[in-house]
Amino acid sequence: MRGAALASLTAHGIVLPMAVFTLVAGLVFLSGSRLTRHADAIAEASALGRLWIGTLLLAASTSLPELTTDVYSAALRAPNIGIGDLMGSALANMLILALLDLVYFRRRVLDDISRNHLMIGALAIILTALAGADIAAGGRGRIGPIGFASALIVVIYLVGMRAVRTELPEATPPEQLALGATRRTVLRSAVLGFTLAALTLALVTPALVLSAEALASVSGLGESFVGTLLVGLTTSIPEGVTVLVAVRLGALDLAAGNAFGSNAFNMCILPAMDLASPTGPVLRQAAAANLIGAQLAVLAMGLVLLRILTPRGRSLGPWRPESLLVLLAYGAAIWLLAPV
To answer: What is the CATH number of domain 2-337?
Structure first.
């Protein structure tokens, strides 16, 4: 079935797979945006604060496109698209923060980020670096169907999140509550909307993976390039929408928590990919190009953390060099991953 679908997509050149990819990417954008809005409403109606929303609930909900895309890619025997997506999404999330820092340079949007997010950022760096190290080592060791590094990543994530001690501010009642709706009504509506958005993502994601694989085949760009840059950027659209809205609302901790929390959570998708893969742990099958994506993602996260740690550091005109270097890191990914 997969072979027939790929044959149909690639039979007439690049136009059809590009059109399908663009259409599905639009559906991912719409579904991801609704997912984020409903997740925010759920958190507020259940009396959770913005720090917790950004770090856990929004990070997990906006990572649903990555989860469904990457698990399907493993099941469809295209693991490099999924692994590339994980590294590309981490890089794209940092690109989003860097671009906002450069565009809103008068507001210095990263100056007032809570230091609590530094722990989440450090956790994301550790998990991404561990995945990159396992790619370099050829995916050594396994626990049943799950790679040893994939299992270790989940353990470190759980321990790390337990170690994070943040103050949970009082949640602001959502607009519907101010208009007189009951908290239970708002929560019920938000849960229904969240479920429908999640189901839409689950249904359209196989088409995203297949069209990306067809693009890689027809264009000759390779699965790692398509996964890291094209799919990675597409599945980061929900994070981009969330971060932009959060910055415009002045909810800077929500923006940073979502970006770093998503990067940490995304690495925990690897065991699910291992379970879905009919050929064993996916990091054992990873192309060497994915190591470049992991290294650049770690570099970008380190630069953004340095930017947050030094709010009064040196500037190049109106811009901070750390944010400019993140843009260069993304450009380096395009250059290094592009086929010669």
So the answer is: 1.20.1420.30
